[in-house]
Amino acid sequence: MTENTIIxxxxxxxxxxxxxxxxxxxxxxxxxxxxxxxxIAMEILTDFPERLxxxxxxxxxxGHEPLCLxxxxxxxxxxxxxxxxxSTPEEAGAWRNQWVYVSSASRPALPEGEYYHHQLIxxxxxxxxxxxxxxxxxxxETGSNDVLxxxxxxxxxxxxxxxxxxxxxxxxxxxxxxVHLLPGLRP
Length: 187
Description:
- The protein has helices spanning 89-93, 117-120; strands at residues 24-34, 39-44, 57-60, 65-75, 78-83, 99-103, 124-127, 132-141, 146-151, 158-161, 167-171, 176-179.
- By secondary structure, the chain is mostly beta strands.
- A hairpin with a 4-residue loop joins strand 1 (24-34) and strand 2 (39-44).
């Protein structure tokens, strides 16, 4: 599971033409200007930082302003990035705390059996016996394995680790995930 689909402002439309398929994917967040030449620190929020290349277009802020990446380099836990037309700390500072997106059409293909988070949000979850359990509303990244947050129509949410013993089938076309409920997974 990779690539975050973050909608920073819940009142901001996602720009998705279809359920589950956003137009933009978050890859970072701009933080503070660095130096005197218009660089700005970007927090990396993607598993694919290698997709960034000089002269590539990224989209910044709620208005998805297209900006051409002039340069980037690693600095501590951040990337220092600069954009065409931005050459002073003041110009770079105007973009502080803005999300950085790429077009979802440019996302890399994943190996068989791996999915982007946004592909799973909204899928129906059912047990191996066909019992409906609810909808996936969030995916928690825990370090060891991701966890599906499932909201049933009534009752407490169900947390399901994404491990082979639990997740038996993911069918994007049918919009469902089949799971095996290990003891203790249901509240």
